[in-house]
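If you are new to this repository, start here. Below is one unmodified record pulled from the training split, so you can see the exact layout before writing a loader.
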Amino acid sequence: MGKGKKKIGKPFWKEMTFITPVTVAVIAGVFLFISTLISTCHPVVVPTPENSPEFAKRLIHAGIEIGHWRQIVEEQEIKIKELKEALKERNVSKEALATFESGDYAEAEALFAKELKEGVEKVANAAYYLGNIKYAELRFDEALNYYQKANELEPGNSHYLTGLGSVCFIKCKYEEAIEHLNQALSIDRKVYGEEHLFVARDLNNLAVAWDLFGDTNEAIKYYEQSLDINRKVYGEKHLSVARNLINIANAWRGQGNQSYAKELSEQARSILKELNMEKSPHMAGCLNDIGASYYYLGNYPKALEFYGQALAIYSEVFGEKHPLIATTLDNIGVVWSHIDCKKAVEFHKQALSMHCDFYGNKHPDVVRDLINLGGAFYCLKDYKKAKKYGLMAYEISVEILGENHPLTLQAKSNLDLLPK
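And here is the target side for that same chain:
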């Protein structure tokens, strides 16, 4: 499986470490899992990082990268709705259903565990639903075990394979995720035909996995196939189409085609406006996208304008502190590094403080902040502080990511540029 590393960023020291929130947050957010069991009536209220600070903390404490949050939230919502339909099919009491809807899954887990143990009909389904419960609880190792059990009991079920792919994706086992998702795609094409939403889902899932695995050529191929189906099913003005466009834009940006990436991002932005989603995280993601394109094209005032708009939306949605706000502040600092390095230091320090509050000191986003902060001091010719923050970045990166990780190599390369 060919792996081509996606280059992100412009030279700053030797090579600036620069990521945009869209690239790490929204791509993963459209890793979709659609089920025939979804009901449009009586929706279950599912906690999200937007409506529940406590849920955001749970994601952080579970060690989940922010780039996977949106995927987890959307997948969790699907799985909980599947579970609710399954409980209704089993004629559970209204009291038991209300307990489940409140977020207490103990009774549902006991029911499905009993079915699995007794070997009743649809035992594979019982294992799958137990996997859904564990996924909803962010207990991904246990979810993986149940999905594997379901797949062993009933091979060839695309839902079970997609469940396996979803957990492998979160655990950054992209090759395994791609294998499971390819199987799901093949099955759904045979069962539903070429132009079905399940097929569009599978294609998008594969594209996301390939994108994060580092092969943007494969990612673009699958993103565009998914986009074609969504346009035929939904028309031009639909959130699924906007999501496809956002992802394709990010992939082209990774290949260096900034003008085309910006054009696609503008198309997505136009759709979101028509859908009255101007104050949504999706819109903030689009604005970040456009800001990144302007940055890469060397138009720093425009980059600051769009990053500023994105920051305003994130602040309105999330409050004063959130990892996406921190990452946006870091990106603004990167732009200021080309204009006024003293201002860049201010933004990088804000980002570093906020990321540390959320993640602690030992996290990849903290490493990026430290590298960028060291870079700003390097531009100010304050080599003592550049070395201080560069060394901190390197030591943390070695500890948490290993000596051969790109961030570790970046930090070492920056340190090597300092005067001896």
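Two things worth knowing about this chain: Confidence is low (pLDDT under 50) at residues 1-53. The longest helix spans residues 69-89.
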